[in-house]
Amino acid sequence: MTSGREPVAPDSENKDAYNAWIEEMRMRDLEKEKENYEVRQSEIEGSGWFAKKNYAIGEKISHYIVGRYEDVRRGDAIEEGSEFDHGAVQCGVTEDGDALYIGVPHSPRRFINHSCEPNAGIQRAARPEGGWDSFIIAIREVNPGDEVTLDYSTTQLDHWQMEGCKCGKPACRGMITDFGRIAPGLQEKYIRLGIIPKWMSDAVQK
Fold first, then answer.
1. Burial zone of 91 (CB within 10 Å; 0-12 exposed, 13-18 middle, 19+ buried)
2. Least packed by Cβ within 10 Å: which of 61, 68, 132, 145?
3. Paired sense of beta strands 99-102 and 72-74, if any
4. What is the pLDDT of residue 76?
5. How far apart are alpha carbons 118 and 124 in whole angstroms?
């Protein structure tokens, strides 16, 4: 069991100590998440991320700091078949249109499924010391036992699509595409909810 005080990061040049610190920080994240979420079979696909408590609209479901102690890579820098390839979580997209991934192969967040009618979204804010605060927030009321879902289109701007959406919602679009190709009305809704970076909203509104 970890103590309440967060350990100070050792010098990154001391690889053994630094890697041990990274692992302890990841385990702390996992312990925090066990209190509020669980991973189990999803009706959408595979495993899903399920809430154990109520979340009101706008409430933060999860908070993580991208680039704090996790490896951040562009999509084209991920070696196919690697542990990173199988366990990474997309955390957003850069202004240049490159997808960013964080290497957290044991994080339950990797089980968050897509839905065309999601109950959560991601808000991001740059940190003065570097990295980004990333918040998963409720955009609908979330009750205990509800599967937490995101619209994957809100994390993509470059030309991209995934065939055969399995969310089963009445508004299912049939395929998952980048943000630029969803309906203008839906784009506006997500922008109003604050889950689209300003540069992305500016790009589609030009």
1. buried
2. 145
3. antiparallel
4. 59
5. 18
